[in-house]
Design goal:
Radius of gyration: 21 Å
Structural class: alpha/beta
Number of helices: 13
Shape: globular
Strand order of the largest sheet: 3-2-1-4-5
Strand content: 5-15%
Length: 342
């Protein structure tokens, strides 16, 4: 199988699941609710163990959707942009492709065992990005449009009872209501910040500095170091205030939703972004690794990308998806080992 055959196969087959003999035996013994809960918490996808509270949330969401005879619903909250430091920005790249394929593999058993099927929502937080990271709205609009085009390529091969969509939190709010609630939450978070654990604070400051585009909507390059630091420190405030917005929480954290994320967050299932990666796809860069004739999807963080971008690799022509970042793909002749920093 060559590179293009592998990628086409990922696109065409990731949303289909063939029931095994073991599955059929299990279905005969268990009620459908237990069957789906077992599939959703499979260790082959999870990168971390799932705690009791998260298990209960999954169980209750499944039960509620079944009682309503509606699709099992998933929500994945994410930034809604491509990190400006990558050459592929502002559009989606192979990181999004691999993640979508991986998540479709994860949920694909459900349509096979539950007639109403399932729906997977990517919940975009792009409304906060310009003020938090100085990234132009036109860039996040471009990202949103390209994400939809990529999804449309996958949808061509979906079974009829499987759906995957991207929603913008901005669409849940009248502008004035959004601004008023956010302002109140910012003041609340400022009062709470002195009690934050040092580990959380340092991690969020590092992320804020990585994401800020100093020459973005406004020219922040000439600001004093003191003012620049204040911009960095405001990032975590915006982030936590935004995440507490009531309509956002009602959608993402609704009792009928199973929350999925890359790394552990409260009451969610952490499954990474590919078999080898937990890097967030919107701040990652997708490549292929090849070993003994087999291909492996890899999503590189910005630091990882800097380390390996000049290492020997093939640039293979593809054109699988009608977007600029899918005309070629980097293929490395070995597996990477980043230790725990995946």
């Amino acid at each position: 199988m060559d590179t293009n055959e592998y990628l086409l196969n990922r696109l065409q087959t990731c949303s289909f699941y063939k029931l095994t003999i073991e599955d059929k035996d299990l279905l005969a013994k268990l009620c459908i609710e237990k069957k789906k809960k077992k599939k959703l918490t499979l260790g082959k996808f999870r990168k971390w163990s799932i705690d009791i509270n998260s298990q209960e949330r999954v169980k209750n969401a499944i039960k509620l959707n079944i009682l309503r005879n509606q699709p099992i619903q998933f929500a994945f909250p994410f930034g809604g942009y491509k990190l400006w430091r990558f050459p592929t920005s502002p559009e989606v790249d192979w990181a999004e492709f691999f993640t979508i394929a991986y998540y479709l593999n994860y949920v694909s058993p459900i349509p096979q065992v539950y007639k109403p099927g399932m729906i997977f929502y990517f919940s975009s937080d792009d409304i906060i990005i310009e003020r938090m990271d100085n990234v132009p709205t036109k860039d996040t609009d471009t990202y949103f449009a390209s994400f939809n085009i990529l999804l449309s390529e996958f949808r061509k091969y979906f079974p009829p009872n499987l759906k995957m969509e991207i929603k913008r939190v901005a669409d849940f709010y009248p502008k004035e209501e959004f601004e008023n609630e956010l302002a109140l939450l910012i003041e609340k978070i400022k009062q709470e910040q002195p009690s934050w654990e040092e580990k959380k604070k340092n991690s969020m400051l590092k992320t804020s500095e990585l994401n800020i585009k100093w020459d973005g909507v406004q020219d922040w390059t000439k600001l004093s170091e003191k003012v620049k630091q204040a911009k960095i420190e405001m990032g975590p405030t915006y982030h936590d205030a935004y995440c507490a917005l009531s309509r956002r929480r009602a959608f993402v954290r609704g009792e009928d939703k199973i929350v999925v994320f890359t790394t552990p967050i409260p009451n969610a299932i952490a499954i990474g972004t590919s078999k080898t990666s937990v890097t967030k796809f919107w701040t990652g860069f997708g490549v292929l690794e090849k070993e003994k004739g087999q291909f492996f999807d890899r999503i590189l963080s910005f630091e990882q990308w800097k380390k390996v971008k000049d290492q020997p690799h093939e640039v293979m022509k593809t054109g699988l998806v009608p977007l600029k970042n899918f005309q070629e793909i980097w293929v490395y002749p070995q597996r990477f080992n980043f230790g725990n920093k995946i």
